[in-house]
Amino acid sequence: MLKVFDQVIYVQITKNAFNLLHVESNKQSHVSAAEPFSTERLAVAHFQIAETILNKELQKICRKSFFKASPIVVMHQLYQAEGGLCEVEVRILKELAIGAGARHVYLWEGEPLSREQLLRKVYATGV
Question: What's the farthest any 2 CA atoms get from each other in the chain?
Fold first, then answer.
């Protein structure tokens, strides 16, 4: 159950880049990697590079407060996602978000989510 102080961050993964949306505040961030983490076969092939970049962006986009809870992160891989994600890719995305500071991770496959859908928490219900 989400609480008032929860922060939900929507992360879209493209080739060597992340797009982040802080759902509650509508604050957005885009970061392209100086050092590539994607390859022609995997969206996240160089884990440490991707984790470092995502961690820095999560710290920038999350609200600062005394009782700062780690964010809930919705990961959405857009690059190399045709046909669905395999078991290894699912684990990469979950561990990437947890390692970057997420408290809980949801994975979303399909069309990009709107802010309204994220506010309705469709990622958690699968609706």
Answer: 43
